[in-house]
């Protein structure tokens, strides 16, 4: 009995090393809806469309606050933005952008914890797309509160970051970055910064490719009319879910991580395991970027997917988890605005493609951390089992090894955190309308959508942003951003 209790204590100690917060975060991530979203995240998506209409949810409910400070700032900013609380939204997005830049310096303590538990032990670090869109929404929020100078500052910060990230851009990034350049140009033009607007529009055309003809430069606006840049946000961005792979580690492989193993053997075995996992990822759609069916995959002896050979008594089942993307919305295309005197448009950004590019950029680092973590867990298990066997006998040693192996597998969880309140796509068009109050109707995939009344300022640019919440093109949000350029 004493031997059994000691073994249980050792297994519990392995979990305790992770820290209560990481274990709690892992439990939260494991409680998911049929779409693979954590239940709190699904509730946030359900409530956000009411932020501008129901005063009881004007602010994000505290019970749904994320555990990570940066994600909390992103969610608070989004909530305030769609509630029309421009001051709080602007502060939230500025805080989030500053925090995101600080996260690129990670602590050694965090990395050590991640090698014992999972990537949820790390502070969340956003990808390129989320970093860029903090400045995008920050600019629109500042403009919404009438602070055009700060809006232009955010547009400049956005431009600097786009230039910094340009060398790592892929084709998946192009549509979103073209839109970011285009909206920056509209912000500059609304503020009266003609040169900056021209540069932004020129960069947008460079990125837009076949759609470049839809992005005109600045043109004179007659005094009896005004230009309106209309942004239509659709749906919800693709979210990360966990993809699990079970890798059988047979006795000779496991022994490499035991007390008699050496570094060379350990590296060679880890490389073999990593090769099997990478081979499986390569056989999935787009190298394992997109969710398929959610079923755990078992790697057989030959590195394929199938039934593993029966494990010997010294073998282990290694569970490897990595994030993949799951779509909950297919973007629609914004085509036209009724009643326009002059129009140009058709530019649509796919944020689904952009976050897929981010995941692809991070894939090797994520898998490398995952394999290293499993190697550390396996080595710790082998050493603990050997010591327990030497001191208490083979039965107790096997019990210790089995419990630690089970604890390590239970803690393994892909990091599926992200800015889940982003839209799946944003479409843009620029129209010229008669000066004065105008009821604006947009055509999205052949369906008319009421944008609401827009006050068109004579000889000036106005930017209007509206969001369509449901996948079936539900009601457009009551609130959106309206930027009215100041007179110069």
Main sheet overview: 5 strands, mixed
Task: Name the overall outline.
Answer: elongated
Q: Flag low-confidence runs.
A: 1-27, 471-488
Please count the beta strands (DSSP E, at least 2 residues each).
11
Distance between the termini: 85 Å
Q: Number of helical runs?
A: 14
List the strand order in the largest sheet: 6-7-1-10-11
Strand content: 15-25%
Radius of gyration: 26 Å
Brief synopsis:
Helix content is 47%, strand content 18%. It has 488 residues and is an alpha+beta fold. The termini are far apart.
Keywords:
alpha+beta, three-stranded mixed sheet, 14 helices, 47% helix
Describe this structure in words.
The protein is elongated. Strands 6-7-1-10-11 form a five-stranded mixed β-sheet. A three-stranded mixed β-sheet has the order 3-2-4, with helices on both faces. It has a three-stranded antiparallel β-sheet with strand order 5-8-9, with no helix packed on it. The protein has a domain at 2-23 and 240-327 and 357-411. The protein has 14 helices and eleven strands. The model is unreliable at 1-27 and 471-488 (pLDDT under 50). It is of the alpha+beta class and 488 residues long.
Task: Record the SSE blueprint.
Elements: H1 2-16, H2 20-30, H3 39-47, H4 69-83, H5 86-102, H6 108-116, H7 128-144, H8 148-165, H9 174-191, H10 194-208, E1 225-234, E2 239-249, H11 251-255, H12 263-283, E3 297-298, E4 316-326, E5 334-337, E6 342-350, H13 351-392, H14 394-411, E7 425-434, E8 436-444, E9 447-456, E10 461-468, E11 481-484
Parallel strand pairs: 1-10, 2-3
Antiparallel strand pairs: 1-7, 2-4, 5-8, 6-7, 8-9, 10-11
Helix pairs in contact: 1-14, 4-5, 5-7, 7-8, 7-9, 8-9, 9-10, 12-13, 13-14
